[in-house]
Amino acid sequence: MAAELKNVEIKGVDIPIIYEQNIQLPLFYVQIIFKGAGGISNKGLYGLSDLTSSILNEGTKELGVTKFSQKLEEKALSLEVESRFETMSFTLSGMKKESQAGFRLLKSLLQDPNFTQVTLEKVKETALTSLLEKESDFDYQANRALNAMIFKDSLLEYPLSGTKESIQKITLKNIQDFYQTFINLKSAIVIAGGDIDFLTITQSLNDVLGGLPEGKEVQIKPIKVHRDEGYKRQVKDTKQAYIYFGAPLEVKDIQKEIARVKVASFVLGGSGFGSRMMEEIRVKRGLAYSAVMHLNAGQTISYAQGYLQTSIDNEKEAKSIVREVIKEFIQKGITQQELQEAKQYLLGSEPLRNETLSQRLNAAFNNYYRGLPLDFNHKVLQEIANLKLEDVNAYIKNHQEISALTFSVVSAD
Questions:
Q1: Where do the Peptidase M16 C-terminal domain residues begin and end (predicted)?
Q2: Using a CB cutoff of 8 Å and minimum separation of 24, what contacts does 312-316 make?
């Protein structure tokens, strides 16, 4: 049974539900996603959404994290809260026979989160420790500096997970206000399935979500990548150079373009061995262990990004080759053999991405969220199978903007 788009009305609000019944195993899976509750709504308090989700993983105020976790463990249930770029999700799963116990615990978490000063200080300390560890993570440092350049003057110029200064500033009232603003009925989208019927899902959701405010739906505006080329080099105590690079990718219609984007990305740098980046930088010249570049087409952001590590002596040459590979890629496109290899891999690997119920439901959700048909992935595969070489190369040639590269390097003198 494929995923279906249904809905449930709670307090006069229609909440979409992406549902797939699967009775092969006595398991259930429910995820409640709140659009706008992610880092995109931090509004200058970087780390606010992440800290909120961290506290929500600390149980309820009544039980505390230890007793709340024990109740989950007794029923072999999993309940996790995660903050992402645009959303915050509550994911509940377990055995079918324990579903009602799971819904009761989810309801108690939504109604009585452990919003206390003690808990806030605990998750702040964890967040600050994580930031301290990242100071010696040169991949993170190079990537962070790249994002600050290509996303300048946007929400992504600064780390959504926070800085030392922003995390220290966040108060318990900030957390409570964020929760009350963004965890609401009009922001909610549900994905659910497994060996659980739809009536049970809707009845449980009415009980679980009935206590939430109606709220307001968040409108998320697209973020553009800077077309101006940039360069930043940070000198650190390192034995090799970490090179990250990015560029704009202008996608006007995901539904019409995604098949071409996937093939182009696979050939340019997304396929590992056999990709242009890997062949030119590692195989032919031995300058790096790996070299990667992806073309990312999204509803909110579309951009090109890649990275490699090389010896400090080869830093300049590696950067130069990256430019050459992209320039030739745009000018000459791909070969018939590369197209065939891309088709074989993309068509052959897609079933592996849809083996589990959660994978299928999340794929359907991602399509719904982007305004696409739930079965869009299947349609894309058909388009990929029918792609002609001249169509792919014409598409690549029309995207000169991916050569407007910005480089972020962490290296040593």
A1: 169-345
A2: 312/238, 312/239, 312/240, 312/241, 312/411, 312/412, 314/241, 314/287, 314/288, 315/241, 315/243, 315/409, 315/411
Q: What is the pLDDT of residues 20-76, one digit of tens each?
A: 999 999 999 999 999 999 999 998 899 999 999 999 999 999 999 999 999 999 999
* Mean of pLDDT values over 183-208: 97
pLDDT digits (tens, 9 = 90+) for 361-392: 999 999 999 999 999 999 999 999 999 999 99
206 alpha carbon, distance to own chain's centre: 29
CA dihedral of 49, 51, 57, 62, whole degrees rounded to 10: -110
In Å, what is the CA distance from 379 to each residue of 88, 261, 373? 28, 14, 9
All domains of the chain in start order, with CATH? 4-209 (3.30.830.10), 231-411 (3.30.830.10)
Look at phi and psi of residue 286 and say left if phi exceeds 0, alpha if psi is from -120 to 50, else beta: left
Cα 209 from Cα 203, distance rounded (Å): 10
Q: Is 114 helix (H, G, I), strand (E, B) or coil?
A: coil
